[in-house]
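Repro:
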Amino acid sequence: MIGIVTLTIFLHSFLSVELLRIQGTWDTGQQFFHFITKFGFQKTLLQNQLETQGYVFGNISSDGHGSKTYTFALLDRGYFLGYYGNSSLIDRNKACQTMFYKIDSIAYDSTCNDEGKEDFLRKVPCPVSEVCVDEDQPNNVIPGSQLTFAVQDLIQPRFWYLSLVACTRNSTTCQWEAVKDNATINYDLWLVNGNPRTSSHPTFDYHFSVEMQGIAEIYLVCFACYGFLAPLQLYAIWRQKHAIPKLFTASILFVTTGLFFNMVQAIEFAGDGTGIDGLQILGDILDILSQALFMLVLLLLAKGWAITKTEVTNKFVLFSVWTIYGIVHILLYFWDRIEVAVIENINPY
């Protein structure tokens, strides 16, 4: 029983897996700035750069309406925060100029800044069935893709942020201007840690953001332990009539089932980079129910039930506290999934 409690607390300390393959659309007439996602790229090893750096690749196209170009940006947090903060300016031309003021000092542009050291930007949408116009070395583009970014960080892992904005650089004046046009931009992007041209990358690291690398192995190990201990716990309570061991066993069964779903999701994600989001939600809900039951067991034991008392006193207060805990936990979970912006980088719990 102690071993199962330890595993339960250990498992609850881990977050859910985020999806990697990003597909979506952007209506430029409705949104000036469109945030796509953030992803943690691992530290690049100097002796093996090509195999350990991160990659962003895929396709960005339009529905054929509109003739203007927009900007796709891949930025680390140091450049992204100012860029994102200025996107809310009402004057769109001023917003564009302010957003890219710091970025212009370092981002490469074949016309306006050929001494730039960083590959941060692409003009989109890309021509149909061709690579993006900024891809001046087409051989570096991953086959089947229109654009490719290689992300290197020789010092530490780092989060990078992907976004689209209705700004374009005037090739004559090199000034940033707002794009006033209506178009639907479609994107299908992959973000990986490791070289997509080879098959030698670690299966459980390649598709995962750096903070989630190893989560699939953790789920596998924990599920193996629970798969062994849960039947023993069921056997132990077979002849017991008291409610506390039964409540605890129910908690263990919930977490075991939830762990199984999350394990399947993580393995599926490791294989194809998308996973099954509904399966992850189901596993998370079962995990929350397990925690709620485990909390009820602790509250009952704290009241001395089955230790110094045969009856529970102040039942209304006890079950009110337990109910509030469960409701708040579930609300926080869905608030985190629906309302909390990935950009904010906060933990609602």
